[in-house]
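Course assignment 3, question 2. Fill in each field.
Student: A.L.
Task: Predict the tertiary structure for the chain below.
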Amino acid sequence: MKRFLTLLVAVLLCSSAAFAQNKGDKYIGGNIGLTIQSAGTTDGDGGVAAGIGFAPEFGYFVGKNFRLGASIGYELSAGTHTFTIAPNFAYYAR
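Answer field:
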């Protein structure tokens, strides 16, 4: 069931990009994530470290099937705050 839901979400996210591929079109999207890691040691006394983050994304089609975009992300994990800026580009081949 978990595999099916993962595949369904992936198909839905990828199929929405197929409709906006003309110059001047815009899109918004992003990521939300949860990280859980074992913080155990060799003697067995450890714990669990958890983190949460999000990264909204915006993009603009500068030509047919070619887009430029950027995301700004934030993550909080084990008391550490992380900010990221990630430019990206993509070409949609048919």
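Instructor remarks: The two ends are 31 Å apart (CA to CA). The chain is about 15% helix and 55% strand.
Grade: pending
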